[in-house]
Amino acid sequence: MIKHFILAFQIILLLFTLPASAQKSAKLKEIHRDADFFFEREDYKEAIVYYLQLLDNSYESANIKYRIGVCYMNIPGEETRSIQYFEEASRNISTKYKPKELEETKAPLHTLFYLGNAYRINNELSKALETYDKFTEHTGFYGNYNISIVDNEIKACERAKIIQDSPVDVVWENIGEPINTITSETCPVVSGNDSMIVYLSTQKLYNAIFFCKKNSDNSWCAPININPQVLSDGDFYPTGLSYDGSELFLVRKTETNSDIYVSMYENGKWTVAKKLGENVNSPSKEDFASVSPDGKTLYFTSNRSKGSRGGFDIYYALRDNAGNWTKAQNIGKTVNTNLDEASPFIATDNKTLYFSSKGHFNMGGYDVFYSTIENKKWQIPTNIGYPINNTNDNLFFCPVLSGTTGYISRIAKDGKGREDIYKLDIKSKLDIKEVASGNK
Predict the structure, then answer these.
(1) What is the CA radius of gyration of the chain?
(2) 111-121 vs 62-73: helix axis angle to the nearest 10?
(3) How confident is the model over 268-306, as pLDDT tens digits?
(4) In sequence order, what are the residues at sequence separation of 6 or more whose Cβ sits closer than 8 angstroms to the Cβ of residue 213?
(5) Which of 20-29, 32-41, 135-144 has the weakest average pLDDT?
(6) Are 367 and 394 in contact (CB under 8 A)?
C-alpha cells in the first residue's frame, strides 16, 4: 500500500515538474535567441546582458563563453574581462563551428586569436605570443585564416617590448570636474589656444555633446549640452575645433554611413550643423575631420576606394577664396598604410600632423603618431611613445599650444568614471623617432 502511495506521489510530482522544466528551457532558448540577435547586430552591450543571464541559469557552453568574450572585447574598458571567457572557451574548440546554430556548444578556432589580442591589450605579451603560435600551429588554421593578420599582431607585441623599454617622460593631469564624471567622456577636441573644449559624454539614453570655455582663473566653466543647438539626436560626435574655437567639425554616424558636418560659434551659440559638400563627403564613410590653425586645410579620414592605400586613409582639402572646400586628395603613402588611419590633428605650427594608425611601428591596435611636412613632403611617421601609447587603442590625441601639450581620453586608475579626459605634457628629451623606428 505504501509503495503504491509513493509511486502515485512521484507521478504527481513529475507531472508538475515537467511543465515547469519545459517552461524554463523554452525561456532560456528565448534568451539565447535574443542574445544572438543583438550579437549579430554588433550591439555588444545589449547582447552581453542576455548571455550572462544564460550563465546565471547554468545554460552555458564554450560557444556562449566565446561570445561573451567577443562582447567584452568590443566594450571600451572591458576588454581584459574577456580573457577568462576566451580561456575557458578555447578548451572546447571545433573547426566545424556553426555560428548560426542555436544548439552549437563548441567555440570556433579563432577564439585563440581573440585570446591573444586580449592578452596583448592587457600587456601580457609573452602569453599573447604563445597563443598566436598555438593558433597558427592548429591543423585547421592554414587555408582558413589570413596569416598576415596574425603576423601583424605578433610583430606588434615585439614592437611593444622595444617601445616600452624607452618610455617617454610625460605628465598626466585628469582635468577633473566639472568635465569628467562617473560616466564616459570621450572625443575631446580643444581649440589650439587651449581656451575651449567640446567632447562627447555618454548619458543614460543618448550621447550628449558638451561645450566649455575657460574662466579667467584657467578653470573650466560648467559644461553646456549643445545637442539642441547643433540638432544632434545622439548621432553626432565632435572631431575637430578650429584654433580660435569658432568652427566645430562633427561626424554624423548612421548604421550604414558617416559624414562630416560643421557648426559655427556665433553670438555665444552653435549653429545647426551643416553637412559638407561632395568634395569632402562621399558615398563611403568619413569618420574624422579637423582643420589647420590657419583654417585653410581640412584633414579627414575616409574609406573611399579611389586613391586609397587600404582601409581608412587620411585625406585633405583646401579652402578656396570663396570659403569652399576643394576636391579632396589622399595625403600620400608615407603617412597612410594598408591598415586604418584615424583622428588627424594638425599642430599649431601648421606642419606637424598627429594621427592614429593601426600600421607603422605600433604596439597593437591604434597608436598615436606624428609626421612633419618638409619641402612639401611628409616625413616618415614617428610613434609618439609609451606610456602615451599602450597596447590598446589610442585615439583622439588633440595637440594644443606648442604641440607637446595635448588632450586625450582614456581609462585609468585615478579616473572619475569609465573614460576620462586627460591633459598631458611631454617633458621627455628622448628622440622618440629613434625608439619608434626600432633603432635602439
Answers:
(1) 25
(2) 40
(3) 999 999 999 999 999 999 999 999 999 999 999 999 987
(4) 195, 196, 220, 221, 245
(5) 20-29
(6) yes
Q: How far apart are the C-alpha atoms of 134 and 125, rounded to whole Å?
A: 14
Long-range contacts of 257-266 (CB under 8 A, 24+ apart): 257/283, 257/284, 257/285, 258/285, 258/286, 258/287, 259/286, 260/286, 260/289, 260/300, 261/230, 261/236, 263/229, 263/230
What is the length of the chain? 440
Tell me whether the CATH fold assigned to 2-145 matches the one assigned to 170-436: no
**pLDDT 10s digits, 225-270:** 999 999 999 999 999 999 999 999 999 998 889 999 999 999 999 9
**CA-based max dimension of the chain:** 105
Q: Residue 137 in 3-state DSSP? A: helix
CATH architecture of 170-436: 6 Propeller (2.120)
CA–CA distance, 124 with 70 (Å, rounded to integer): 18
Domain 2-145 grouped into CATH 3.40.50.1700: no
Task: Specify the amino acid at residue 147.
Answer: I
Which residue blocks in 147-258 are alpha helix, DSSP H?
Answer: 147-164, 227-230
Q: What is the pTM of this model?
A: 0.88
Where are the chain's structural domains? 2-145, 170-436
